[in-house]
């Protein structure tokens, strides 16, 4: 194990630290979307509709987003290395629970355990990297590699999950994490250095209001299309979410040791970067979940074929993120970030041209476009924030960035899912008179899911309604991304560089 001042580490040992951090991060990022290709199979076997499948995704993302800040604070106070190792162990345990799940409830529970583990390891990963790579130039390159692995992990998830699901069933998409997790844990325990603690204090009131606020918001958005937007539980959850999240912001402004670094938003560059992270996840996660359902349930692709459709995005994301690190080191994050957001917006909007019988030749080009855009966003966001804070606040800043990324993903799946499901149910009722029961089955599950086993006419109506809902959701996502690209150009100064002055 490394000892002494990290600054004196040889280049070879620093590379081993980077490998150890990237291996754990890659596993966590892969799991964000590896489940997407397994959703149709999970829906068939566990009799889950679109709302149930949203919970499979949201259980992970919601817990991850809610506890990222706590993970950062715990790392600052108790040591980033032990908290990172604990996160890896929990993530591996949660993966085994998911793989052995025989019901939707157990699967959702396992996904939540995975989220706890990911929340502990992710902020520690970037904070340790920030401590080991002390030079601005080498840090920018290291963050570029780290971001490339992060982005590639997100994009490779569907490509890896597809063949596993077709060959071994949906549980294999989770079993694969067990040996990877054990290997990453052993490597990290041997290689990662001790990092000085900052003595940060926990913020239990902030944590409780954050978890409760996000949870009630997601509940309202996911269950709204199922129960009806006028349902008392849905309306009550929406009202509670507004009050709890407002209370969370108020608490963070008043408590002496807040877990959210709101000062990041007082700086034009870092504030824009954090919001950009939220927005790119909003569009990407919303696209990823519903694109997989579209490819398999509407176009009839196998899980493997659906995963391979994302392969060009995988390759382009990783490569572009590394190049983006070098661009940021020379020119600052503003232009690469704005360009990346615009490219992701264009790719999301492009899927509004896809119908019930669209061939791969008509949309293949959207995948590399998406990958390049993602690669151009991940690295500038991390560099803009991590180089603008002093080392003692690196854990909190990392957690804040990643929290907003994950909340963006939670919001993307929930909002775009609510838009899609509401439009789908409405169109289905218009297409098939008296189709209320069928529409409820498609959204809530327990019956035909997304139309499997229905007569051809009814299946065609379900597919058409689903595509109409998908188109509207893509418009929402693309609009948010395009607006954010313009805001980055306006809010980030032209002189913003990777070595921006410290915030606060």
Automatic annotation (TrEMBL):
It comes from the Bacteria. SUPFAM superfamilies: MFS general substrate transporter. It is a multi-pass membrane protein. The chain crosses the membrane at residues 16-35, 55-75, 82-106, 140-160, 172-192, 204-222, 234-254, 274-295, 301-323, 335-352, 364-389, 470-491. This is MFS transporter. InterPro entries: EmrB-like (IPR004638), MFS (IPR011701), MFS_dom (IPR020846), MFS_trans_sf (IPR036259). Residues 17-497 form the Major facilitator superfamily (MFS) profile domain. Belongs to the major facilitator superfamily. EmrB family. It is found in: Cell membrane. Signal peptide: none annotated. PROSITE patterns: MFS (PS50850). Keywords: Antibiotic resistance, Cell membrane, Membrane, Transmembrane, Transmembrane helix, Transport. NCBIfam families: efflux_EmrB (TIGR00711). It holds the Pfam family MFS_1.
């Amino acid at each position: 194990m490394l000892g002494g001042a990290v600054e004196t580490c040889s280049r070879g040992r620093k590379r081993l630290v980077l490998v150890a951090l990237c291996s754990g991060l890659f596993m966590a990022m892969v799991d964000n979307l590896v489940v997407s290709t397994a959703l149709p199979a999970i829906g068939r076997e566990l009799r889950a509709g679109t709302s149930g499948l949203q919970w499979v995704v949201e259980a992970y993302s919601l817990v991850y987003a809610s506890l990222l800040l706590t993970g950062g604070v715990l790392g600052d106070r108790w040591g980033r290395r032990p908290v990172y190792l604990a996160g890896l162990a929990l993530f591996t345990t949660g993966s085994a629970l998911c793989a052995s799940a025989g019901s939707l409830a157990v699967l959702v529970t396992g996904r939540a355990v995975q989220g706890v583990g990911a929340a502990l390891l992710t902020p520690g990963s970037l904070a340790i990297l920030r401590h080991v790579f002390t030079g601005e130039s080498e840090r920018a390159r290291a963050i570029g590699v780290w971001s490339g692995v992060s982005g590639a992990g997100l994009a490779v998830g569907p490509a890896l999950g597809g063949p596993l699901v077709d060959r071994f069933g949906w549980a294999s998409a989770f079993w694969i994490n067990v040996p990877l997790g054990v290997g990453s844990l052993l490597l990290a325990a041997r290689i990662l250095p001790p990092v000085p603690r900052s003595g940060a204090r926990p913020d239990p009131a902030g944590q409780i209001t954050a978890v409760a606020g996000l949870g009630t918001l997601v509940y309202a958005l996911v269950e709204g299309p199922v129960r009806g937007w006028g349902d008392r539980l849905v309306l009550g959850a929406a009202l509670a979410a507004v009050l709890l999240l407002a209370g969370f912001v108020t608490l963070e402004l008043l408590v002496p040791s807040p877990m959210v670094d709101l000062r990041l938003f007082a700086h034009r560059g870092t504030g824009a970067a954090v919001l950009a992270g939220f927005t790119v996840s909003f569009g990407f996660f919303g696209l990823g979940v519903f694109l997989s359902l579209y490819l398999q349930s509407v176009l009839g692709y196998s899980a493997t074929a659906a995963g391979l459709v994302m392969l060009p995005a995988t390759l382009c994301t990783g490569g572009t993120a590394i190049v983006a690190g070098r661009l940021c080191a020379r020119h600052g994050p503003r232009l690469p970030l704005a360009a990346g957001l615009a490219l992701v917006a264009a790719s999301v909007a492009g899927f509004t041209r896809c119908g019930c019988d669209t061939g791969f030749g008509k949309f293949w080009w959207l995948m590399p476009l998406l990958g390049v855009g993602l690669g151009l966003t991940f690295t500038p966001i991390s560099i803009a924030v991590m180089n603008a804070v002093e080392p003692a606040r690196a854990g909190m800043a990392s957690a804040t960035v990643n929290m907003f990324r994950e909340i963006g993903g939670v919001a993307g799946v929930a909002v775009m899912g609510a838009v899609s499901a509401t439009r789908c149910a409405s169109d289905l009722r218009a297409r098939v008179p008296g189709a209320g029961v069928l529409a409820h089955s498609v959204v809530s599950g327990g019956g035909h899911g997304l139309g499997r086993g229905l007569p051809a006419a009814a299946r065609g109506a379900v597919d058409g309604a689903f595509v109409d809902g998908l188109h509207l959701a893509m418009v929402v996502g693309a609009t948010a991304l395009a607006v954010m690209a313009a805001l980055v150009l306006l809010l980030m100064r032209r002189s913003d560089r990777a070595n921006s002055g410290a915030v606060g």
